[in-house]
Amino acid sequence: MERNNLTCVSEFYLMTFSDDPDLHPVLFGLILSIYLVTVLRNLLNILAVISASHLHTPMYFFLSNLSLAGIYFTSSIVPKLIVDLLTHIRVISYGGCLTQMSLFVLFGCMDDMLLTVMAYDCFVAICHPLHYDVIMSPHLCV
C-alpha cells in the first residue's frame, strides 16, 4: 500500500526582519525612504531622456527602459513588504506568492536583457562606428 501526501498549501507565512515590534516603525521608514528614492531617481532618468532631444539616441532609449524596468522590479516586492510591516500580517496567499515571484523573475530578466542590449550597443559604437546608424536603427531598437 502506497501512502501519498494529500496536504494542500493555500498560504505561506513570511519571515520578518525582527520580532521586536518597536523596530518595525524604523524598518518601515527606512524601507519606504529607500523605495521612494529609487522610484524618484528612475523617474527623473526617464524624464531627462524624454525632455532632452539630444538624448534621443539608442543608448539613452535603453537607459530609460532600464529605469522603467527598475521601477517595476522594485515595485513587485517592496509594497508587500511595507504593508506587512504596517499591518503585522505575515501571510501571503499561494496565488499572491506565485504572482509576486513571477513578476520579480520577469522584471529581473528584463533588466538582464536590457543590459545585454546596452553592451551590444557599446560594442557596435566602438568596433563599428561607421555602421552604427545602420546597425542600431531606431526600428531595430524598438
UniProtKB/TrEMBL annotation:
Family matches, as PROSITE patterns: G_PROTEIN_RECEP_F1_2 (PS50262)
Record-level GO cellular component terms: membrane
InterPro entries recorded: GPCR_Rhodpsn, GPCR_Rhodpsn_7TM, Olfact_rcpt
Pfam family, one: 7tm_1
MF terms (GO), sorted A to Z: G protein-coupled receptor activity; olfactory receptor activity
G-protein coupled receptors family 1 profile domain ranges (all copies): 41-142
Membrane listed as a keyword: yes
Transmembrane residue ranges: 26-48, 60-79, 91-110
Subcellular location: Membrane
Record key words, sorted: G-protein coupled receptor, Membrane, Receptor, Transducer, Transmembrane, Transmembrane helix
Membrane topology recorded in Swiss-Prot or TrEMBL: Multi-pass membrane protein
Protein name: Olfactory receptor 7E24
